[in-house]
């Protein structure tokens, strides 16, 4: 089955074609970073408008690249939520219209299921069952995955998501949106031994997270270090490093705990924060000691993209799971 996937939940327009026999045929992405950067974050109305502008040109691009025509496409999958309502509606209406026009089934996919399954796009991909760490701008979750659609939530953040904390710390340090990669870059120049930041909730049993206290601790440290309202360059780098170290070690501790609890040896990491190189290195090292293995998507499929939606949709559409929800979207949607 050849499936078209559309992702428009936030600030990236992603379009991809996935074939259940031949794999990923083509994918294209347009990032709206330049549109939102002057506002310091995503402006929902501007995001929706730009999805309207970009989705069809990207669709033409991937169809040309893959050498397919409309009659070759067997189904359309799109992100139905969670995300920004207007942005989601652009993808949903377009996907439903195309599917109706082409006479093929359509399916609304959960954005986090897309992230969760993104490592399956790699040649060396994990086998079920595994534990997934989903770390994005809106979610921090540990999920046991027994198969497509067989998900058990093991733990999640009780307040801010890890990516959100990265973005807020970036603002405190005067770094531009999107903050995560900028904090990571600055942290690489920082000294690990300078500050000792808390590792939230690691001494309590369970698999939940909390990042809001760490954020406040970071803000207090920033205020303490400022001289005449200015933070010295080395202080900024050392704070970024201390914050990143705290997030990385908290996530690592909880991942090991989750694998132990579930008796599993495979961890999958996905979502924007899984692009973080310190987190990748720490997990790889920690799991190697326990003969467990960690899988993650290629960097281009860690953040939002159409390929993960095409893949998730293809698995479900191939299993006959089309839906007829109309173009309804679900801005808040538990997985
Ligand atoms: O998955 P994603 O693209 O969008 C959501 O579904 O939220 O994740 C975006 C989040 C942002 O918070 C961004 O700052 C964070 O992922 N992020 C990173 C890195 N790259 C992206 N955080 C830390 N280190 C990175 N290298
Ligand atoms: Zn995402």
UniProtKB/TrEMBL annotation:
Keyword tRNA processing: yes
Keywords attached to this entry: Acyltransferase, Cytoplasm, Iron, Metal-binding, Transferase, tRNA processing
Binding positions for substrate per the UniProt entry: 134-138, 167, 180, 276
Co-factor: note: Binds 1 Fe(2+) ion per subunit.
EC main group: transferase
GO molecular function, one term: iron ion binding
Function summary: Required for the formation of a threonylcarbamoyl group on adenosine at position 37 (t(6)A37) in tRNAs that read codons beginning with adenine. Is involved in the transfer of the threonylcarbamoyl moiety of threonylcarbamoyl-AMP (TC-AMP) to the N6 group of A37, together with TsaE and TsaB. TsaD likely plays a direct catalytic role in this reaction.
This protein's name: tRNA N6-adenosine threonylcarbamoyltransferase
Organism: Halioglobus maricola
Gene of this entry: tsaD
């Amino acid at each position: 089955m050849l499936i078209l996937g559309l992702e428009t939940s936030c600030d990236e327009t992603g379009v991809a074609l996935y074939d259940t026999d031949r794999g990923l045929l083509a994918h294209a992405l347009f990032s709206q970073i330049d549109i939102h950067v002057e506002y310091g974050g995503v402006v929902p109305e501007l995001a929706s408008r730009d999805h309207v502008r970009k989705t069809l040109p990207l669709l033409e691009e991937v169809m040309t690249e893959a050498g397919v025509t409309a009659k070759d496409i067997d189904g359309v999958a799109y992100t139905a939520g969670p995300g920004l309502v207007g942005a989601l509606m652009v993808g949903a209406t377009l996907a439903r219209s195309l599917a109706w026009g082409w006479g093929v089934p359509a399916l609304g996919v959960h954005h986090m299921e897309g992230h969760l399954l993104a490592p399956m796009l790699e040649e060396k991909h994990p086998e079920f069952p595994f534990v997934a760490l989903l770390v994005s701008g809106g979610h921090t979750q540990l999920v046991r995955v027994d198969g497509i659609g067989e998900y058990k939530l093991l733990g999640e953040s009780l307040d801010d998501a890890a990516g959100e904390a990265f973005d807020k710390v970036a603002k405190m340090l005067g770094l531009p949106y999107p903050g995560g990669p900028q904090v990571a870059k600055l942290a690489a120049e920082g000294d690990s031994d300078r500050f000792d930041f808390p590792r939230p909730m690691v001494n309590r049993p369970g698999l939940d997270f909390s990042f809001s206290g760490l954020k406040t601790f970071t803000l207090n440290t920033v205020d303490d270090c400022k001289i005449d309202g200015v933070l010295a360059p080395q202080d900024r780098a050392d704070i970024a490093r201390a914050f990143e170290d705290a997030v990385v070690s908290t996530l690592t501790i909880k991942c090991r705990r989750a694998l132990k609890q579930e008796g599993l040896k495979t961890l999958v990491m996905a979502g924007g924060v899984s692009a973080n190189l310190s987190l990748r290195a720490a997990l790889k090292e920690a799991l190697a000691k326990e003969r467990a293995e960690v899988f993650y998507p290629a960097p281009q499929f860690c953040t939002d993209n159409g390929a993960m939606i095409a893949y998730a949709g293809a698995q479900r559409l191939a299993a006959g799971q089309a839906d007829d929800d109309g173009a309804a979207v679900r801005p808040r949607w538990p997985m």
